[in-house]
Each structure stands twice: as structure tokens, then as C-alpha cells.
Structure prediction request, 114 residues.
Amino acid sequence: MNESHLLKIALISTAIGILLLFIISRNIELSETTIEKISNGEITGTVILEGTVKEVRSSENMVSFVLLQNKSIEIVGYSNKIAISNGQKIRVTGKVSEYNNKKNIVADKIEILS
Prediction:
């Protein structure tokens, strides 16, 4: 085989690989987890949580609140485009983080359920 054939095979293989990765990544779904698993260090990365809102604090470009299940966790969102109030049921998708030796969630998406 000459170099031009090898180059074509490499480019085609690369394109197919990237396409397959894109298709697979679109079909991966996160499952809902619990605050207890996050607190125990069992879960890291991106998570989905549902719970009840408590202790809402907001500013021009940030909102933070405590999410209650059996335990509680601080949620931080860097957008104030959603009106959140105490007692609402919500679903949060975000990344597990740590601040002052406490686990929290940096929200990517906040959905109001009720």
C-alpha cells in the first residue's frame, strides 16, 4: 500500500469514529441519584437530583439554595433567569463540587416540577 491509500483509510476511520462517538454520547442518559450517595462520596461527576427547595438566596447573576431529600445539599446556579422559591419541588442536573470541605452541586439545568 502506498501513502495515499493509508492516509485515506486513516481519515475515513477517524471520521467514522467521531460519528460513532457523537451518536453514542447523544443516547447516554443520566439516572437520578440521592444526596446521601453524593455525601458519602459514592457519586461524582454530573448528577440528577430531585427534592424540595429551602433557603433560597439570589443575586444579579447567581442563585443558591438548599435542596432537601432525606439529607440536604447546597445547589449553586450561575443564572438568575428562573424564579425559585421555598417549598418548590425541582429537578437539578449539575456537577458535584466541593467548597469549604462540603459537597455541593453546580447546576447546569434547573427544572421546576411543582
Remarks:
- The chain has a mean pLDDT of 88.
- The chain has two domains: 1-30, 35-112.
- The beta strands are 46-58, 63-68, 72-77, 89-99, 102-112.
- The first helix runs from residue 3 to 27.
